[in-house]
Predict the structure.
Amino acid sequence: MQNYDVAAYIWPSYHYEPRMEHFWPEKDGEWYTVRRATPHWPGHKMPRKPLLGYQDEADPAVMRQHVELALEHGINVFIVDWYWYENAPCFERQLNEGLLPAIEGTDMQFYLMWANHPVTNLWNMYEDTDWGAVQMPGAVSREELEPMFTRIMTKYLAHPQYYRIDQKPVFSIFDCSGLVRGIGGIPETVDAFGWMREQCAAQGLNGLHIQAIAKLIKSSPGREEKASRAHEIAVSLGFDSATSYQFCMSSGGQGEYRLWAEDALSYWEDYAKAYSQYFPHVSIGWDDTHRNPSEKTCVAGSCPAVFAEYLSRAKAYADRHPDQAPLVTINSWNEWTEGSYLLPDDAFGYGYLEAVRRVFG
């Protein structure tokens, strides 16, 4: 039987992060928001309660439990959302103090997705999201990029359990348009990518596999120009691959799950053409009402059985592309405030984890 690399994203906010205490004053991260969830309309499934409790994910004992749970259900890679604001890391305690000690002696691997979007009001549960109200920018200049990446390279990319494709460590980037704006243009970003690859080669890492988060197409009206610009950037930068982060980035944030998922899957071949190769992705759901007090819609109808169908579609896609790594990504391990998580809850128990095990073994 073919082996697959099944990778789940980790949103590392479920621990105390001093720089975000103004959003979550009870000092245990975004559990503050999860605990306060309420239904926004009749029949809305809120609150969502974690069966394992409101755990501190910077605790290595907690993360060891998570690692063992993931491996038991066929998940062997964690993709950690990684943040850098104002020339300093953010949310890193979950990785440094929790996950890295927890994976020692196991078969779990990890890699980083640089979540280079700005800090806005998104994490303030008392106000609707305002992406224009930037509190800390996510873009960096070339002068800021070089010491940041050198730190990543020495601290993480050389780790023996860091995930590699063709023996190269994988580094994923969330917002490629924002990256280009910060560095100063497409040619300047191509040059920065070359520098990053050269630095990794010089450190004996065989180079660097740079992965994009694919978002060529936006389904809402009036975004054709942005989609065209994203396509231009994707083609021009010379990524090694792409995958997706969330179905909502292609299909919006409402509707019936099957229609939502079908729309997202319809872009896979477009992504493969733009980014040279695409690793299939499946999202569990979407419900960001935790963070938006006036939100009245979400994606409805998600359940483990339907999720398993789309996992099977992702597996079939991987089987049709034997020339590339057998990587499948899932959103997410623990995105409680976006309604997309594998961890067990009071609604479906361990159902989503069991779906992964049924499909991938």
DSSP finds twelve helices and twelve strands in the chain. The chain has a mean pLDDT of 94. The radius of gyration is 19 Å. The first helix runs from residue 31 to 35.
